[in-house]
Amino acid sequence: MSLPSETSATDVAADTGRAGIILAGGRSERFPTIDKALAPLDGQPLIRHVAGNLAPVVDDLLVNCRRDQRDAFADALDDFEPTFAIDPVPDRGPLVGLRTALAETTATYAAVIPCDMPSLPAAFIEYLLSRAENRTGAVPRVDGRVQPVPAALHVRAATAACEEAREQHADRLDELLPLLDPFVVPERVVRAHVDPDAFANINTHEDLAAARGHGPRADQ
Questions:
Q1: How far apart are CA 28 and CA 204, in angstroms?
Q2: For a Cys-Cys bond, which of 171, 172, 175, 194 suits 93, CB 3.0-4.6 Å?
Q3: Structural domain boundaries of the chain?
Q4: How would residue 210 be classed by pLDDT, with cut points 50, 70 and 90?
Q5: Residue 132, annotated ligand binder?
Q6: pLDDT tens for each residue of 73-90
Q7: Is 17 labeled as ligand-binding?
Q8: pLDDT (tens digit, 9 = 90+) per residue, 131-162?
């Protein structure tokens, strides 16, 4: 997929605005006692770790979530001053959440990370954004698979791909990739930049226990 046809050479030259999008609208069914995004890791909620990793490399921060999550997330991120992209209809999945967030930004590019990936260092997010320049986006290959997140996306191209996915009744983030055709960072390059453990999702209390004390290395 190429950049949208209305993007002129002048527009491409001006591609500098960056948003950070945190996808946090899920129901956290394997965290029955707490919203997963608020589960504590090394003294801070998971969502705050993700925001802290995004903030140094983006201009604005957006959080996609349900309306009932907003106040608790605002408290957890009080000094980040994020914009909240509220799902108009909850529980439609992360692809719909991404489309909701993309509609709320005027940035040219967006770095997209789920709320349960707290160890991805800012330096790698910056690298993804740099590889996305003048492309529809960039995603990593990890453990032999192309990963839909983390991702750096050209906002207009991704919005068009989300609309195409909606028309095809697709509801998973990985179904967006063939429509968007982003640059895929080879696994050997990914491993040169970051430990593969940084891509681990916190899906259960056991995952959280294993992750405690294991944030990104200082040299990343």
A1: 9
A2: 171
A3: 17-206
A4: confident
A5: no
A6: 999 999 999 999 999 988
A7: no
A8: 999 999 999 999 999 999 999 999 999 999 99
Q: What is the rounded average pLDDT of the residues 206-213?
A: 81
What pTM does this model have? 0.88
Hey, how many other C-beta atoms are within 10 angstroms of the C-beta on 13? 9
Contact 122, 56 (CB under 8 A): yes
Question: Was 72 annotated as part of a binding site?
Answer: no
The residue whose two tokens read 């591609």 is 15
For 185, the token pair is 């960072």
CATH class of 17-206: alpha beta
CA angle (205 as vertex; 66, 74 as ends), nearest 5 = 30
DSSP code of residue 33 = T
36 is in an annotated binding site: yes
Per-residue pLDDT tens digits for 21-40: 999 998 877 787 789 999 99
Q: Which two tokens stand for residue 105?
A: 């930004």
Residue 79 exposed, middle or buried by CB count within 10 Å (0-12, 13-18, 19+): exposed
Cβ neighbours for 147, distance < 8 A, ≥ 6 positions apart: 139, 140, 141, 199
Is 24 labelled as part of a ligand binding site? yes
